[in-house]
Amino acid sequence: MDFQVVVLAGGTSKNLVPLVSKELPKALLPVANRPVLSYVLELLELSNLKDIIVVAEGEDVALRIGSWISGAYEERLRVEVTSVPEDVGTAGALRAISRHLTANDILVVSGDLVSDVPPGAVAATHRRNGAVVTAMLCSVPVSGSSESGSASGKDKTKKAVVHNIVGLDPTKQFLLYIATGAEIEKDYKIQKSILRAVGQMDIRADLMDAYMYAFKRSALQEVLDQKDTFRSLRQDVLPYLVRSQLRSEVLLNGTPRTEENGIEKVGSHKIQVLLSQILSNSSATSFHDLYACGADGSIPVRKTHKCCVYIPPSSNYCARLFSIQSYSDINRDVIGEASHLSGYSFSAQNNIIHPSAQLGSKTTVGPHCMLGEGSQMGDKCSVKRSVIGRHCRIGSNVKIANSVVMDHVTIADGCSIQGSVICSNVQLQERAVIRDCQVGAGFVVTAACEYKGEALARKEK
C-alpha cells in the first residue's frame, strides 16, 4: 500500500524495572516465550508490510534488537534497525530519523503492541478519508487502561483509571477531541467553543490509544519541524493535529479563537456509562461532510485537514506492554483467551509442553500453561495459568500459579511462586515463597525466605 512502516521499539523502560536491563531491553521481553517485538513484526508481515524501520533507544539496544531480528527474520522481512538517543520520546524518535521518511504516508506502530488487528485496516481507513492522521483506538482491556501500571497483582482489583477522553463525530470516523492523561473521577470540562464548532460529539472514555498511527508524511514533518519541544506522539502531536482541525470551524461559528470562559461540564456519571451525547441533534452527518458544503448546506467553505480513527470490533485482541501488570496480563491472555496469537499448537489439555520438556511423577501442568524447551520438573509439582521458559530446572513439590518464569531459572524443592515474574537465571533455594513479586535477572532467593509484593534485584556493581 506504499506505506513506510516505523516500529518504535523503545529501550529499557523504567516502568518495567526489574524485568528489563541493558541485556534484555523491553522489545525482547518474552511473551509466551517469544520477544514481544515478534508480535508486531508478524502482524505487519501478515498485512504484507515487509519494509520496516525499527527505532531503538540507545546503540546497545539497537545492536541487540538487530542481532535478534537478523536471525529470526532474515528471509522474511527487510528491516533497518536504527538507534536514537535515550529519552527523546516518540516524537523525538521520529524527528531524529526524519531523513529516512520518504513515502507519502507513514505507519507508526509501537513495538509493545500485542494485537490481531490488521494494520492494513488502519492504512485503508487513512487513505479512504484522505486524513492527515488516523489513530487506532481499541476497547480498554479488562485489567484497565492506566499507562502508569501497577507493580503487583494485588493492585489489580483497584478501579481502573481512564487516561484518554476522546470525542468522536456521529459516524465514528473522525476524531474531534482528545485529552490524554485525564483523570475523570471529577467532572471533566470541555470548552463550549469546541462543542459549537463540532455541532455534535460523542464523548468516550472506554477507548485505549493502541499507538498505531497512519500519518500523512508532509503534515507530520511540518509538526515535528515547527514544534521542536514536542516529545510524545500521543500527548503532543496527536492532540495538536486534532485541535488545529477545529480552528477555522470555531471562527466560522462566530466564536473568537481566544474564548476560554465558555465551559461545558461533562458529569463523571455520564462518562462512567462510557457513551454521552453532548447535544440532542440526532443527525449522523459527519463533521467534515457538514463543513465541506457549508454549515447551512449551501455555502462552500474551506475544508480543514481530517483526523480519523479506526475502531476495531471488540472481538479483536489489543493490548500494550507498558507496565509490569500489563506484562503479566498479556502473558496470561496469549496462553489463554488470545491463544491464537501465540503461534503455537495447543494440546488436548489446552496447554503447551515442549516435546523436550520432562515432567516428574504426579506433576500436573494445567490448561493455559506453557513449559518451554529443555525444562525439567521434579515430582509432585503443580503449574496453573503460568508460562515457564526454556531450560529451567525445577525441583519437587513446587507450586507455580499465575506467574511468568523466564529462561534458565533454577527452583529448588518446596518453593511456591504466585502472581509473580521471575526473570532469567534466577535461583530460588529450598522452600522459598514468592507472592506478587518481580525478581530481577540473576537474583538469588535464599532458602525459606518469604517475599510479598516486592521487586527484588541484584545491586548494580
Automatic annotation (TrEMBL):
The keyword Manganese does not apply. One of its GO terms (cellular component) is cytosol. It holds the Pfam family NTP_transferase. Residues 354-446 form the EIF2B subunit epsilon/gamma LbH domain. Residues 5-151 form the Nucleotidyl transferase domain. One of its GO terms (biological process) is cytoplasmic translational initiation. Keywords: Cytoplasm, Initiation factor, Protein biosynthesis. The keyword Ribosomal protein does not apply. It is found in: Cytoplasm, Cytosol. InterPro entries: eIF2B_gamma (IPR051960), LbH_EIF2B3/5 (IPR056764), NTP_transferase_dom (IPR005835), Nucleotide-diphossugar_trans (IPR029044). One of its GO terms (molecular function) is translation initiation factor activity. Acts as a component of the translation initiation factor 2B (eIF2B) complex, which catalyzes the exchange of GDP for GTP on the eukaryotic initiation factor 2 (eIF2) complex gamma subunit. Its guanine nucleotide exchange factor activity is repressed when bound to eIF2 complex phosphorylated on the alpha subunit, thereby limiting the amount of methionyl-initiator methionine tRNA available to the ribosome and consequently global translation is repressed. Component of the translation initiation factor 2B (eIF2B) complex which is a heterodecamer of two sets of five different subunits: alpha, beta, gamma, delta and epsilon. Subunits alpha, beta and delta comprise a regulatory subcomplex and subunits epsilon and gamma comprise a catalytic subcomplex. Within the complex, the hexameric regulatory complex resides at the center, with the two heterodimeric catalytic subcomplexes bound on opposite sides. Belongs to the eIF-2B gamma/epsilon subunits family. This is Translation initiation factor eIF2B subunit gamma. It comes from Cucumis melo.
